[in-house]
Design a protein that fits this description.
By secondary structure, this protein is α+β, with helices and mostly antiparallel strands. The protein has two domains: 6-122, D-amino Acid Aminotransferase, Chain A, domain 1 (2-Layer Sandwich); 126-286, D-amino Acid Aminotransferase, Chain A, domain 2 (Alpha-Beta Barrel). The chain contains eight helices and 15 strands. α6 crosses α8. The longest helix has 18 residues, at 270-287. It is globular and about 55 Å long. It starts with 5 loop residues before the first strand and ends in a 13-residue tail after the last helix. Bound molecules: 4'-deoxy-4'-aminopyridoxal-5'-phosphate. The site of 4'-deoxy-4'-aminopyridoxal-5'-phosphate has 14 residues, from α6 and β13. 4'-deoxy-4'-aminopyridoxal-5'-phosphate binds next to α6 and β13.
Length: 300
């Protein structure tokens, strides 16, 4: 990714180096904020309304007031145009803002609102489509934590868990709940395929309700795939016919190795690849500039 040129900061497009956050911002001091990561295709965010709904859900969950949806959308579009970003990952971050008194949320000023976007290389998708390796994490995602389902800027567990992957040369980690069952990855949701049935942990297992997970469940339903929502013992994930991860940036990514062992034949499975194609088709249909035809090769 190349360094961003501009950011949208508290309602204004400014050079990236000029956006400054107060050292008293509760987002900085306590990780008190919420955010969304969106993927930009052909200059258009995929699923903006879904992301905005999740942001509203998070804002209610932590008692944070949001700026107007249309202002944020306009800011994002302005940023994408200014920095010429047809293929990018964008992030909307809202933090509590500056606290006048320590640990006193009633003393908060206005929330800080940041929109950033960075170019991504769509070629990375082809490499990921060949499948990735994951390892088991030593971090735990308890199913009953208070902020379950809130996409909080307090992201330390995911950050440290993802670092375990990096240290072991893996792309991601499988994160267990307090009972040792796999519930998600550091920054993605987890699916397995067992005998033609799609299985993924339920929202009540404390996971983030991923937008990609939601869309994959819809396209899987369209494809008539049977589905079960259950947490997964690690041995069950390792014995599955297929395993894949979902996330805004990584879309549908096959897992071909867990630790030192291949998943089934060690190649992306047919159902994973079919869901990946269907997901891509949905993205293409929803981000196509109005009036243009569907891409002739929708399997790209
Ligand atoms: N779980 C966690 C913990 C995440 O951080 C993410 C990435 N935002 C996801 C799941 C996937 O969510 P989405 O499909 O909305 O990107």
């Amino acid at each position: 990714m190349s360094a961003p040129i501009h950011v949208h900061w508290n309602g204004r497009l400014v050079p990236a180096d000029e956006a400054m956050v107060s050292v008293f911002d509760a987002g900085f001091l306590y990780g008190d904020g919420i955010y969304e990561t969106l993927r930009i295709y052909r200059g258009c965010p995929f699923g903006f309304d879904r992301h905005w709904r999740r942001l509203e859900h998070g804002a209610r969950g932590v008692g944070l007031s949001l700026p107007a949806r249309d202002d944020v959308r306009r800011g994002l579009d302005e940023l994408l145009r200014a920095d010429d970003l047809p293929s990018a990952v964008a992030r909307i971050t809202i933090t509590r803002g500056r606290l006048a008194r320590r640990l006193d949320l009633s003393s908060a000023g206005r929330p800080s609102v940041l929109v950033t976007a960075e170019a991504i290389d769509p070629g990375a998708d082809d490499a990921r489509a060949r499948g990735v390796r994951v390892v088991h994490s030593s971090y735990v995602r308890p199913s009953d934590h208070s902020l379950a389902g809130v996409k909080s800027t307090n992201y330390q567990v995911s950050l440290l868990a993802r670092n375990e992957a990096r240290e072991q040369g893996a792309a991601e980690v499988l994160v267990p709940n307090q009972h040792g069952h796999v519930v998600e990855a550091a920054a993605a949701n987890v699916f397995v395929v067992e005998g033609g049935v799609l299985v993924t942990p339920p929202l009540r297992s404390g996971i983030l309700g991923g937008i990609t997970r939601e869309v994959v469940l819809e396209v899987a339903g369209d494809a008539g795939l049977p589905l079960r929502q259950e947490t997964l013992a690690p041995e069950r994930v390792e014995a599955a016919d297929e395993v894949f991860l979902t996330g805004t940036t990584i879309e549908v990514t096959p897992v071909v190795t867990i630790g030192d062992r291949p998943v089934a034949a060690g190649r992306p499975g047919p159902i994973t690849l079919d869901l990946r194609r269907r997901y891509r088709e949905r993205v293409d249909a929803e981000t196509r500039p109005s009036g243009s035809e569907a891409p002739s090769d929708s399997t790209r």
